[in-house]
Design brief:
about 425 residues, alpha/beta, about 30% helix, single chain, binds uridine-diphosphate-2(N-acetylglucosaminyl) butyric acid
Length: about 425
């Protein structure tokens, strides 16, 4: 088990590059199950969720190589359509294999993901979409058992906008007979990239980037090669690192249009940005952040995956802010831990009321999920004294060696193997 030891209060400076996006790679990878070919995904991050997905795909018979961020997946010899509990329990994104397996093989047995660290995360929308496309779904002994003849096009409306269910439905519909119309579809950048990869495979898709997506199914899909986008949440986390330490850094980050809502909030809090081509200069030197309310929402709104980091930042702002999570109402496990660092935050329903304090002070804290861990690291970077962040395996699921990036910017952060849990 590893922990981070952070001696806070160091100013950051220099340039750092944003890694490939975890969440887009996690949907592109199972999409390779659709085609039975040799696929390449460049700019794949070296994070544990990617290794978990590789293991799951290997279990299904996909052959893989992963070197220098290039992931090669050969789905020509699928030997199993069963996604076992041991993989799915580690990562909910495993449910992405459901649509491709049903569409290509007419059968899938996928473990139900169960609860998650911040409460229920149902998959009813995924299952409803598969049913609409013609799959027969049974739930037995903790598993989803899906059977179908050839899937057929359908009208699918999601009551709640869901990245995962939109992705699953798009993948399945690409091999269905006829036309599928998905309404209230997700517009997240990860879905745009999935659509691009499906088009490279030969799928016929329109409306991507709006809430209505139309897909004309085809009989076979070809292999594809794609360059993954960079991680918008890692970009936001690094910007927060600069803001919370009152520093000036440069980010090498291509898709700045994917973080506009965050940039606006940071600007309103007093951070200034200069954008030149793929470089984003973040300037928070001598900043006393102005408190800013935030409500998370679907893209292009402020992402729930940046809520914990924003709370850490606002804990040192001038005044009180209210941070509401409209996507995941219980995603606040970082709050008591930030309070251990001296923050003054109270959770009321799905909002955190953050009263800015003058300083945070180092303490031992532990994380319970990926973004909560990130917020504690940010708190530790700003705190006076030493912060130890335990259970950073959560962080390793989604951030590629974040401590090395932060250290390269001048942070005093070290990874230590410990028996503490
Ligand atoms: N929802 C349902 N039923 C469903 C599916 C979703 O009610 O069948 C609800 C959820 O409970 C939630 C809302 O719909 O309230 C949106 O969830 P969504 O399905 O969009 O989330 P997801 O696809 O499971 C992805 C990211 C999450 C990110 C959310 C929201 C991946 C692998 N995961 O999850 O990322 O928080 O979208 O943007 O893409 C993270 O990276 O830390 C992370 C948790």
């Amino acid at each position: 088990m590893d922990k981070f030891v952070i001696h806070g209060g160091k100013k950051l400076s220099g340039r750092v590059s944003v890694s490939g996006a975890k969440n887009s790679a996690l949907v592109l990878m199972p999409a390779t199950l659709l085609n039975g070919g040799l696929n390449e995904i460049e700019n794949t991050p070296e994070v544990n969720d990617i290794y978990t997905m590789i293991k799951l795909l290997n279990q299904l018979g996909v052959e893989s190589t992963f070197k220098n961020h290039k992931l090669v997946l050969d789905s020509s010899k699928i030997t199993s359509q069963i996604a076992p509990y041991e993989h799915v329990k580690k990562m909910r994104a495993s449910v992405y294999v459901l649509g491709p397996l049903i569409a290509r093989f007419g059968f899938a047995k996928v473990s139900m993901p169960g609860g998650c660290a911040w409460g229920p995360r149902p998959i009813n929308l995924h299952l409803e979409a598969m049913k609409k496309l013609g799959a027969e779904i049974k739930l037995e002994e903790g598993y989803i058992i899906a059977n179908s003849k050839k899937l057929h096009g359908a009208k699918i409306h999601f009551d709640v906008s869901s990245v995962g269910a939109t992705g699953n439905a798009m993948m399945a519909a690409s091999l269905a007979k006829g036309t599928t119309l998905i309404t209230n579809a997700s517009m997240e950048p990860e879905i745009l990239l999935l659509a691009e990869s499906l088009k490279l495979m030969g799928a016929i898709i329109s409306g991507v980037g709006t809430t209505t997506i139309e897909i004309e199914g085809v009989d076979n899909l070809e292999h594809f090669k794609i360059n993954n986008i960079s991680d918008r949440i890692e970009a936001g986390t690094l910007i927060t690192a600069a803001a919370i330490t009152k520093s000036k850094i440069e980010l090498e980050y291509r898709e700045q249009s994917n973080i506009q809502s965050e940039l606006i909030k940071f600007e309103q809090s007093g951070v200034s940005f200069v954008s030149k081509n793929n470089l984003l200069e973040v300037n928070a030197v001598n900043l006393i952040p102005k408190s800013q309310d935030v409500t998370t929402s679907v893209f292009p709104g402020f992402p729930t995956d940046m809520q914990a980091q924003w709370i850490a930042y606002m804990s040192l702002a001038d005044g009180t802010s209210t941070v509401t999570d409209s996507i995941y109402h219980d995603r606040f496990s970082h709050v008591p831990e930030l309070n251990r660092l001296g923050a003054n935050i109270e959770v009321i329903n799905n909002s955190a009321v953050v009263k800015g304090v003058k300083e945070l002070r180092g303490a031992k804290v532990m994380s319970t999920d990926l973004r909560a861990s990130a917020s504690l690291v940010l708190g530790g970077l700003a705190a006076v004294g030493t912060t130890e962040v335990l259970r950073i395996y959560h962080l390793d699921r989604g951030y590629q060696r974040i401590e090395e990036k932060l250290r390269s910017l001048g942070a005093d952060i070290e990874r230590i193997t410990t028996s503490e849990y």
